[in-house]
Amino acid sequence: MHLGLTTGAPDLIAAAIAELGTEIGGMDTPISADPDTGLPWRTRFDAKVLALEEVMLQSAAYVVCAYLSGMRDSEIQAMKRGCLSITRAEDGAILRHRIKSTAYKGKRGGGEETEWVTIAPVAEAIAVLERLSARAGQARGTTTLWPVLALRANTKTHISAEIVRQLNRYRDHLNDRFGTAQAPIIPVGPNGAPWRLTTRQFRRTIAWHIANRPFGTIAGMIQYKHASVAAFEGYAGSSRSGFRGEIEAQRALGQIDDILVYFDERQGGARLGGPAANRIGAALDTVGHELAPLPAMIADRPRLRTMLGSLARTLHVGPLADCFFDPATALCLNRISEPGATGPMIAMCEPVRCPNACIVERHRPAWQRGADEARLLLREKRLPEPQRVTLQAEVARIERLLEQIAPGAATPHSGMAGEEEEAGFRVTG
Ligand code: SF4
After folding, report:
1. What are phi and psi of 10, to 5 degrees?
2. pLDDT at 414
3. Which end of the chain is more exposed for a tag (fewer CB within 10 A), N or C?
């Protein structure tokens, strides 16, 4: 740019460049390494990109808070400096992260001060926001954790609705930095255009995961279950917050989507395994026959949803098997002392024995891992004989089970539960 100027001695600058060469300018701040490449995650900062990256960091912190806390946008944006408190045990271990903010839903006037319990990543994001908001907060005399960071005249104090535009700029920024035009790092929306982020999507998405994939993991190996256990301890767990209702609504949507996947895969020739295979296979086939001669993919989907509705309501996806829950035969319920459980205890699932358990191709990696671990143990020469026999039997059973769901395999026979019980084999989820 300088060389293009008519004033400013471009000839001297050109001579200096010829003699000294150039380098990317900016500050000497150390830049952390990108864990994927081991290289600095960006080129050096200068005053302009620093301002941009601060705004992007604020957006990233918003995503972490909105996604993992179960809080609404208004509740997040009401957070003030000092809103995070930590409860420790006598030995110093952290017991709880608590956030104080204001709940507005259904509250007259200015809302009500309320407390949320959350997990460590949200606490870390708040610690970042405390530092990030300090300068702008001080300059404007505000204690919000969400000030507009740019200190230009005539700008708002609080980020408020601007967060939506900022989140979408963050999406573009991530795509520019880490994706390509063909493969953006944030997947595109259904119409092929960049996904349009809104503040409500985060709470809904975590509600979907808590309802439908509680065993799934978020980056950093936190389980959705952990996020939900923490959230339910605080205001998000109360009926007033509406978060439970959100989860139930997402559960119903997820169950329908999951049963449609079952149906489509069954129509495509997929095999089912586990004790419930015959029952569920027959139910899906019956619906398939009723819909014939329409091919499954172009069948009347709303009608299909209705036909599969009652089966869907019993479906709970699990890591080792899916549960088509029938309380009358649920083995996991025998293992809890408190009566009145209304849903399956997936953590106590007995996928090989329970008549409600159905195993599909999606479960193969988890079973495969189990077999691999058993094989690894079997390599130990000093393994006691009884343990060796048990492990060998376990590997053989897993192999049989995987054969059942292999493409082209015969439909499993219904006596599996009894057979496994007889062999004294018990795999729990
Ligand atoms: S044992 Fe497993 S499959 Fe059976 S009801 Fe419980 S969670 Fe469902």
Report:
1. -60, -30
2. 38
3. N
* Distance (Å) from CA 401 to ligand 1 centroid: 17
Q: For the residues 44-60, what does the mean pLDDT come to?
A: 94
**Are 314 and 336 within 8 A, CB to CB?**
no
Q: Which residues contact 30 (CB under 8 A, 6 or more apart)?
A: none
Q: What is the DSSP string of 230-286?
A: HHHHSGGGSGGG-HHHHHHHHHHHHHHHHHHHHHHHHHTT---BSTTHHHHHHHHHH
Cα 316 to averaged position of ligand 1 atoms, centre (Å): 9
- Report whether residue 166 contacts ligand 1, using a CB cutoff of 6 Å: no
Cα 186 to Cα 188: distance, rounded to the nearest angstrom:
6
CA 263 to ligand 1 centroid distance, Å: 21
Pocket test of ligand 1: the residue of 272, 313, 324, 325 to mutate, having most ligand atoms within 8 Å of its CB, is: 325
Q: Are 321 and 347 in contact (CB under 8 A)?
A: no
Domain ranges in the chain? 1-43, 47-241, 269-422
Does residue 354's CB lie within 6 angstroms of at least one atom of ligand 1? Answer: yes
Residue 10's pLDDT band (cuts 50, 70, 90):
confident
